[in-house]
Batch of 2 targets.
Target 1
Amino acid sequence: MIRKSYLAYLKKAITEQGLLRATKYPFRYLGTYLGYKLNKSVSGPIQGTLCITYNCNLRCEMCDLPQRHQSFKEDGKSPYKFAEWKKIIKSFADIGTSGMAISGGEPFLNKDLFPIIREIKKQKMVCQMTTNGWFIDEVSGRELIETGIDTITISIDGSDPELHDKIRGISGSFEKALKAVRTLVLLRNEMKANFKINISTVFGKSNYKNIDKIIDITKNAGADCIGFIPVHTIAPEVNKDLSLLTILETEEIKEVISSLITKSKEDNYIETSESYLNMFYDFFGGKPLPMSCLAGFTTLIIDCYGDIFPCFSFYEMKKSWGNLKEFNDLNEFWKSHSVELSRSEIKECRECFWNCQVETNLLYKIP
């Protein structure tokens, strides 16, 4: 069973582009598989991600990006302007990327957010953005929808202010996130727009007993679906205790996972695949990822200073594969010998169970 959002993207592509043009996606899938086997860049990444800022208004317990933003600022580093993002987006399109994700930090803290989304859509790529929802109101929500964005993902980690705000580090963040969902639902109906409103929930010791309530409250707010990712503490400045479980917590989490898998079979609101949810047992049991990784084949991330990463985990761990300034363009990087060497090494990587990467790996099921 594959991730439900992938099927939704394919359905939308067929609707908007026609069946003939949408056939390019299976060919890209095959190209990636062939590239993995040959360790060559036969096709571009399926998904590119632009981390357009490290800045964030929240202080989440599992994230150290705001500290990095401050460090870069003190070092006098200048983040990319729109003109540079425009070239990067065009380069992703040129190497055959199907979809782009926008992340951060909090994307709304980059004043070029809307032009960046419009440029992605101009290049005929699917566009998804993850936000904490704080800055979405009727005015900004309307402008966001008018960019043509395909999916807006809002992070919600609790079913009440006490829990969510504790995890996210700032009072009022729960109410802002829920209000953002409701505002987008109202605007979508009013504008007759075609985009998805997704919820992303980090699953861990802080909130595992709260999962059913999170599902209910976000569903009632009007979101289209919810996805889960187990809490990772791989970023250098994050409290590692967040992933340390007692024997009792481990057993209780297994029960919650089992219940979640059952629900996912019965309710399309849960967009996380059953195959990925089953891997949560391994994650919380301290076992490594039980499959090969295709990061650097299927995915590629560029941050606001030009540093390039194969996946979100390497981004979190500050393990860059290089910087764009070292190459003439993204295509040269993608086909470089140094990247081929890095790809051969990452096949054996078992560092994470990050949802966007593992769900893509599951499309190929390479042991």
Target 2
Amino acid sequence: MLSRKEHEHKATHLPEEFRTKVRELLNSIYGAKFDKEQYEFAVFGMTFPSEVLLIVSLINKKDDNAAPVTYHVSSDLNENTKADKVMNYLVDSVGLFFDSYFEDPEWNDFFSKWEETDFKGNKIHYKITRENVGLTLMADQILEDDNKIH
């Protein structure tokens, strides 16, 4: 499970257009800091009635066994929340994380438990892992398909 909260409803994945824009933005800002032939950003996102989740991984596209650097960020949603505002500050938090990641060549500060912080006056939750989210989503799909058969 990628989300921070338990949900009764299935996730709605963020539109490909949004994920592509975020990926292009990250490449324009950080592309000079890594070999684009070897590395790329992967962007995932989903919404639930009470949560939005954005996940960005820097993956090694030449080595499937290399663990990515993955930043997960989540924020609560309610009927008064403006989704575009939430997405803007979540994307900004992704930038803040990758600023610090690329600034320190010895960076190695992973933690798999959700942390809460105030970011630009908004409460967010984040964690930094080595998870390959693309593989996690594929495994979830296989399990879901298998459950439909049985």
